[in-house]
Amino acid sequence: MELLTITGSDGYKLSAAVFRGNDAAATVQIVHGMEEHKERYFEFASFLSMNGFNVVVTDLRGHGSSAPVLSHIADRKGDELLINDQQKVTSWIKENFPGLPLILFGHSMGTIISRVLLKTDSKEYVKAVLSGYVAPNPAGGVAVALGNTVKAFRGPKSHSKLLTTLAMGPFAKAVKERKTDLDWLSYNEENVKEYIDDPLSGVEFSTGSYCALFSLLSGMGKTGEYRDVNADMPILLISGIDDPCTGGEKGREASKALLERAGFRNITVITYEGMRHEILHENDRDQVMGDILVFMR
Known about the structure:
Blueprint: E1 2-7, E2 13-19, E3 26-31, H1 42-50, E4 53-58, H2 78-96, E5 102-107, H3 109-121, E6 127-131, H4 140-154, H5 161-173, H6 189-197, H7 207-220, E7 235-240, H8 248-262, E8 267-272, H9 285-296
Parallel strand pairs: 3-4, 3-5, 5-6, 6-7, 7-8
Antiparallel strand pairs: 1-2, 2-4
Helix pairs in contact: 2-3, 2-7, 3-7, 4-7
């Protein structure tokens, strides 16, 4: 594994980890979720590299040990910066692993970023995997307006209990007999504990970060903005059946239908019994990783 930085369009240094597979058949670009960091994907990346894939995983801006302000993406236009960052990562991969197919993998907020990326750049990738995929929200525009109002009054680096409750409250409440408000992450209690104890995970988003998140979520659902899509590209939607982020059966169906309306027509759905949001950290994650490997191959 090699650690390096990839420079964003505004000079921001994205901390990256590169795993090189022997005789790699393709490269995997991993986009992680909100309030976490790239190291949480090292087990998965190592598994893929041992099975013939290169893997590049970067900390989202505002995330990880190198973030100038942890959980603060940007004062403004954070949504555009996050998309441009992934485009820079894609370009870096294609320059450093020329001629190899590229697979996009996103988890949670990373699936929102990935779906917005697919609006314009789907032909850069041969396959996409969306893990713990967030359900489309018809009220996304309202959330954007609310976030911008709070930011205007309190500043982009402020914290808002209102915005945090709006974004995260429903997930905690989804587990009725919970020991912690983060039990929705997984049934694996050790994973929940490690997340809580991790100083780089679970740090509350700033108002500016929520504005970026809400803008991406709203943009993800605008199917008319998807352009020249790679219609036959295989897409895997993968999640736990008890993952509140997917919005239950209706939400999972809505995510699939959104992609179909956008023009994608080769979509596979795998939903795991006895799992919640972080399927790569559940006790039965070997099954999950194996299914992802089969799809990628």
